[in-house]
Amino acid sequence: YVVDHKRGTIYLKMKDNMVLSTEEITANILGYIKKLAYNHLNIDYKNKRSANVNIGCVISVPCNFPQRKKEALLNASKIAGLELIGIINGVTAAAIHNANDLALNTTKLTMYLDVGSNNINVGIASVSYVENNKVRTRTINMHACEVLENNSGTKIDMLLSEYLRKKFEEKFNVNIENDKKAMRKLLTASNKAKLLLSAKKSTDVFIESLYNNKSLQ
Hints:
Elements: E1 2-4, E2 9-13, E3 19-21, H1 22-40, E4 56-61, H2 67-79, E5 83-89, H3 90-99, E6 106-115, E7 120-132, E8 135-148, H4 153-172, H5 180-197, E9 207-211, E10 214-216
Parallel strand pairs: 4-5
Antiparallel strand pairs: 1-2, 2-3, 6-7, 7-8, 9-10
């Protein structure tokens, strides 16, 4: 890679000596997503101009996303031929999605937790769906949003597996901490449980023959 100190970014060198900026790499990803959108709408991607369809996009970013990176996203969307309608934080995006499932004349205060690959985004928002003078409106008020850096999703997996390990050891009066196979099974099950908990309030964990023919459930 090549460092551009003036712009505060890097360029990646490809095998054929082609040099790509971070905006161009992001544009390639956005372009692929754009292609998927056209396919979903049954529009020929190669003849998109004749279809007279313009696809815009809204991109969600972490709460602490700096202005410089937002400007880079704007440039990337232009390269990809997308109209960037807006940039919102991921917690707000989750609250908007939640508002669509809200019952009429309901207000709910919710904490949203986004466990990413590197950081954790947490926010609190109140979502309401009310009818006034026969007009129905959905309102979202963000009260707080914070990023917990270097607390990745992998750490959540490890915390869950540690909790399950202690429960298993207490139940069967054993020590499996040094059993690599058992610990690997626990970590895999913890990751699966974490993903399920993103859509459910609770989930069950079952590992058959975790240790000495004893199962975790």
